[in-house]
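Worked Example 4.2. Consider the chain below.
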Amino acid sequence: MSLPHYFIGLMSGTSLDGIDAVLVSFTDERPEVHATYYRAYEPELRQALARLCYAEKVEMRALGEADARLGLLFGACVTQLLEEAGIGRDQVAAIGSHGQTVFHHPQGPHAFSLQIGDPSRIAQTTGITTIADFRRRDIAAGGQGAPLAPAFHRAVFQSREEERVIVNLGGIANLTVLPKTGDGPVFGFDSGPGNTLMDGWVAEHLGHPRDDDGTWARSGRVDVALLQALLSDPYFDRPPPKSTGQEYFSRRWLHEHLAERSLRSEDVQATLCELTASSVTQAISRYAPDAGRILLCGGGVHNGYLRERIAGLAHGPVASTASLGLHPDWVEAVAFAWLARQTLNGLPGNLPEVTGAGQPVVLGGIYRP
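Applying the procedure from the previous section yields the following structure tokens:
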């Protein structure tokens, strides 16, 4: 019997919390997750990455060293994942590494999206073919380089029975609208902030990396005037294709809205939670009013108060992707294992109707061991 060909997906999102690693095999398009591994960023590394993401000026040495350091760390996560799974590296066809986004600038004649986590070091330390730098080819084809997960969502979650919306609650929230199979094109976009503003605010005021279960937000009261001011940002009314990042919905953006307002810190947190829930559900109402099911994934799934607010505002049943057999913590990492498989097979990984690219393209660079 021939050995199965596994794929590994590596994901580190805009929340800057850590690295997700999954070991996956595919039967046709259906993924089977065999093992998972998560490594939280050490506080010092998270602070260094935050400086790269938020600083107006970045030292090239700091950027280069972080790129190298993350490449080694990604490789170490792969090694640990395989050791815990009891799988040899010769059984893995490829690693798909999203990398750590430090800047996303999808507009203008010189649009770009920059992810770090040196794939050469991943390939060198693991001995496994590594595919990375997925976003730039889509941008070269006229797209925004994001979101890329909708092609995977279509392959795995689309149904003949109902229209579905997949909501990834990462640092930035993004939606994939999946019409009934054959009823029209799939599309998706970033709806706005997910966890990034809430995480930043709780870190600034309580020194915690996140608001566990939304407990602090739940203790506050939504300030309607602030919420309306935040929702008046033109990004929310911009039609897709569109993508954004923590560069746009930044702490500076928030503090500009807070200028000359005197609010309790917990009320700001409650308002930021409501901003995420409102922007997500308003986007669904606008672009998928007939959705039969709304399926959540990403780190924000663990924020119970955020889940409650989305369910309270949504017009339709809300569940997690676990109801379709894929744990919400691992959807994004599995997506990049799938994208690596697409690339290795010479198949496109983007959806032009989602990213705005002029054509479907094979994504990423291949780094052989």
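The CA atoms of residues 53 and 104 lie 9 Å apart. The chain has 13 helices and twelve strands. Compare this with Example 4.1 before moving on.
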